[in-house]
Amino acid sequence: MQESQFFKKLPANKVKCLLCNHFCDIAPEKIGICRSRKNENGILKSMVYGHPFDANIDPIEKKPLFHFLPGTNTYSIGTLGCNFTCVNCQNWNISQAKKIEEQNNDLPFLSPEKIVEDCLNSDCTSIAYTYNEPTMFADYALDIMKLAHANKLKNVWVSNGYMSDICLDAILPYLDAINVDLKSFDEKFYRESCSAKLQPILDNLKRLKEQTHLEITTLIIPSLTYNEDMLIDLANFIVDELGADTPWHITKFSSSISWKLQDSHSTSTEMIYNTYEIGKTAGLKYVYVGNLPGDDKENTYCPKCGELAIQRIDYEVERFDDNGECAHCGKNLDIID
Questions:
Q1: Which residues are annotated as a binding site for [4Fe-4S] cluster?
Q2: Domains (ranges, CATH) in the chain?
């Protein structure tokens, strides 16, 4: 296990984890809420450092990021553990894993140097820290991110946005893009369905928007997050506090692969389209649907003239823009190449 840089010592050999907004106080030989950090003799250690559970080459659009290096591949890694307990989680076998220290005994150790080498050999332009919450392996991620930048690679996080200010301070100099799950605009939902709080995420979103490329995803769950008044508030928050140029991905929920909602209804296409209209009515320039393969609302259209700029079909990307500008009217499409 690797000593974490994100903690402080407390009396009686306890420690306070400083990685996320839970700020767990952890007694000796105990673990935090995320189950990926352990107090070993008064030292907080990461049980997942160097042990990715999964590593794959993915289209950047799968993160989803539609306005960052479109059409490129990203080398994606993730570990075990999460600081949320989302009832709808679709990666629950990873995020809610138990006995992480024991499971890691069966996983090979991959150094940050090895991850960067594998990325370079795979012809990817970026590394994505994804699958589970990357805050859980921030020490590992940070070491990789520094090496990635030294090798002209970009760094991408897919996150729930619950990291602490201290964690953000550490990663922001090396973070090039992030997609944050803004799961709801309702405090009760976060408390009861995720075991978390909403406000720290909203605060982090404002800071992230100022300092890196930000896109937002909201999973539309019929029983939990499909509420038109709430979604109007959420869309207005994006426009008013983050900017109308912030891409909003609204995705369809499938009950069959969820953690605790397998008896719930899956999201209807009508709900997705209604939410799409909420985003457009609020003034968002770029609203995208997810988990509706082939739908034309996965494409990027110029917000000024309406012409097709980027077409997406099953992660196949065809570009009709002119270096990030509309080829018809010259409008900036807010794309980072």
A1: 82, 86, 89
A2: 2-46 (no CATH), 54-319 (3.20.20.70)
Q: Is the peptide bond before 222 cis (omega within 30 degrees of 0)?
A: no
pLDDT digits (tens, 9 = 90+) for 239-272: 999 999 999 999 999 877 677 777 677 899 999 9
Q: Write down the pTM of the prediction.
A: 0.96
pLDDT tens digits along 64-91: 999 999 999 999 999 999 999 998 888 8
Q: What is the 3-state secondary structure (H, E, C) of the chain?
A: CEECCCEEECHHHCEEECCECCCCEECCCCECCCCCEEEECCEEEECCCCCCCEEEEEEHHHCCCCCECCCCEEEEEECCCCCCCCCCCCCHHHHCCCCHHHHHCCCCCCCHHHHHHHHHHCCCCEEEECCCCHHHHHHHHHHHHHHHHHCCCEEEEEECCCECHHHHHHHHHHCCEEEEECCCCCHHHHHHHHCCCCHHHHHHHHHHHHHCEEEEEEEECCCCCCCHHHHHHHHHHHHHHHCCCCCEEEEECCHHHCCCCCCCCCCCHHHHHHHHHHHHHHCCCCEEEECCCCCHHHCEECCCCCCEEEEEECCEEEECCECCECCCCCCECCCEC
Do the beta carbons of residue 235 and residue 71 sit within 8 Å?
Answer: no
Show binding-site residues. 82, 86, 89
